[in-house]
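User: Please predict structures.

Assistant: First:
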Amino acid sequence: MLIFPYSAPSRSIASTRDSATAPSIWAHVGWTLRVIHHGNFHTEEKSMKNKILCGLALFVFAVAMTPAQTKLTSSGKCGKPDEYHDMAAGDQIGHVFTLASGKCVTKGEVGGAASKEGLFSEHGEVSGDHSKASGVYVETFDSGDKIFYTYQATGTMKDNAFQAGENKYQITGGTGKMKGIKGSGTCKTTGTAEGGLEYTCTGEYTLAGTAPAK
């Protein structure tokens, strides 16, 4: 019976010793964890900064290597088509499919060469007072070099005569100095009394081998 009173204090002393020792141990563990966590935080922060710097460097390099875009302004006058064929669609009056080709007198400059003349070949469709066409345009310069375009045009008609319209064009290539050229733009067109049209165009182009933009 006397064992119990003395057993309880014994356990209490051991518990007291453990609780006295525990704060010291956990303090060391906590300090170690804080050091590890602090070190990892700085390592991650440094890694993130390196990634951002690398990304910026790649972006600047890509911009520097992008070929320079040059503004393009041109104009011209195209006569009545040298060849013209139409075929009625048959579903309604005034619905016609067309084939046409002709020549143009041109003005403009690309890469120091002056534009001399143009040749268009297109297929189109007329429905009432609306028209649309798609074709290929070949522009020849005083150097003898050529530029090839594709275009998509829309316009209005009156009494079977073209009135006005616009088109979008894409530069698909060329010859000589113009080989590898790329570009695009838009044009405004106006019909003439002779059955042709006049146009003004604006756009941009890049010559192959053009020095990178600075």
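Second:
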Amino acid sequence: MKRAGVITFLLPMPGVFIFQPVSLWYEALPPLPSHERPTPSVPPDQLSAKAAQLHHNDVLAFQTSSSTKNSSSSEANFLSKIIQSGTLSDRLSALTLLVQSSPLHNIRALETLKGMAERGKGKGGREESLKALRCIVDWWVGGGAPNRKLK
């Protein structure tokens, strides 16, 4: 929406998801409708900042909804305990489960897996790197990617 040179965005109500927590992140929203009229020009940095804010709000809503459900709360506590003090295989499995449950809401888990895959010679060594990479590949091939060519 645009008024007198100011761009406003419609925000969802607190606690309401923009993206529903689903494993198929690429199907979370319906395709955008085509418009015959040109869209207003908005600076990309403003759009990026707004998208980051909306994503942050959605992640907070996801974490809040997870902590209010008893089984999800105990599950989340169990997974976080494993990630902090489990064996390498247990940590990788827990991170992969988090990413598989809702990749859009568990970006930190995906970034942690990516960091583990990039380490190589540092802490953890080559074994950790290869196992983390295998987890990312398994997730991506097993439904983490759309069944089409990426643009």
